[in-house]
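lol so apparently i was supposed to do this last week
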Amino acid sequence: MDTTVFEAHESEIRGYCRNYPTVFASASNARQVDEDGRSFIDFFAGAGVLNFGHNNPRMKEALIDFIQADGITHSLDTYTTTKRDFVSRFHEVVLAPRGMDHRMQFMGPTGSNAVEAAMKLARKATGRRQIVAFSHGFHGMTLGSLAATANDAFRQWSGVPLENIHRLPFETAPGGDTALAEYREALADPSSGLLAPAAFLIEPIQAEGGVNVASKEWLHEVQDLAREVGALVIFDDIQAGIGRTGSYFSFDGMGLDPDIITLAKGLGGFGTPIAMNLNKPEIDDHWSPGAHTGTFRGPGLSFVAGVVALDYFTDDSFLDDVRAKGERLRERLVKIVEANPDRGWEVRGRGMIQALDTGDGAFAKRVQKEAFDAGLLIGPCGSGGRVIKLIPPLTIPEGDLTEGLDLLEQAIDAATR
Ligand code: PMP
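anyway here it is w/ 4'-deoxy-4'-aminopyridoxal-5'-phosphate bound
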């Protein structure tokens, strides 16, 4: 096939096409096949979208039935049976068991939409404009969410000053966070000129920023400070949520109580886009109808597949399996670090988001290339792309997990030589 038109006219802005120099044609669970019939194991899962695998058969069946019954694929904000099913199933599976009374607010398709709305709502609800965001955080590419994003390589594209953000260091260790303590003191001191914050916006596990895992204690310190100064807590669980860490939310079981939670990526299950915020009712009340709209907020296909995704969480063995596979990922990375003791590499993660910090972006890029050549898809993240992040579909079969890890180990060996 003549690929010249494709190559000349497809913008390379995201760069993924150059990282994976082939044309993919089909996919099933944790495997993608290119147009020449080469099979790749997918440890990237659409940047954390395909938690339930490519072409999940249960979702496929539900989607085919839905289409055959002339279901409504696009409904804006109007009620549909599929939206109602999704809302009640989400309540039943996620909110009710946790005693959460948050309201569900559907967004346009992307995580950036969800973060943007969360920041707007926090500002409206508190009448304040400053948002505290953290070093290495990634929250999206629209102007508000980009302002909260830390990486200057992304921020420099804004074309305008990105303001009303107070940046604090993301401290992963518990206790003794001096920056937080200094910030508390400065806020109490009128001569500091600091504005009281509307919200603290945090990824409990930073994904794009290099897989940095906040401790429960530190998250409590942040939440306590937020409460103390009358600010809201927004947890961005767009990449680490929806089962990725071995629990539905990445912060489950920690006794935390966020005011707003942003979800997207894996929520629609099938790669069918939908984003949603969970807002505490007293905060949600600050919206009025029409205050935050968007066209793609009634995606029937996403609701249908999303209900099937929720069904996975009614079976305890699913999350047990995620944790067990996460342990396998971690053990192998630890083994790789132990085999290379002088390199200062570090393993970080929880559940099925695990990473190897190589400290060297050029090296991580070589590993990515070697892995691709061997038939494994991985995506680097973190400062300068130095962290190799592993986020396979949660449904990856054992055999593919082992084979993928073997290929990764070989790729690292080859890149080290
Ligand atoms: N927040 C987090 C934690 C993310 O990982 C991402 C996407 N990588 C976003 C927000 C933005 O989502 P989207 O790309 O769908 O706008």
